[in-house]
Amino acid sequence: MNAWTINLAGLGLIGLIVWWFWLYRPQALRVAGSQPIQIIVADGVYTPARIEVPAGKPVTLRFLRQDANPCAEKALFDGLGVSADLPIGKPLDVVVTPPQPGEYEFTCQMRMYRGVLVAK
Ligand SMILES: [Cu+2]
Description:
9 strands, about 120 residues, binds copper (II) ion, Immunoglobulin-like, alpha/beta
């Protein structure tokens, strides 16, 4: 790695920080369509924590973890066999497909963060 790539990496990091703290604004929750649904992970709660989605269709959940506590590091969808490691301060898209109508809980590994997908 030479000085040029290190400078570039530094600039990228600054850009990311500026974007995250000043430019980024959460969008309103959208249930239908192919838009990702954003879930903020902060202060022990997922926001939103209850999300209605269509059954039988893949939905993209965009997790934004703001909580650096290791408690927040995983998102587990027990009923769907999906788990994800959430990076801090960086969005991560998780695609899940609830197979049939019903409620599908998602939690952190200690089950302190809790959310539910309501498939209809
Ligand atoms: Cu936890």
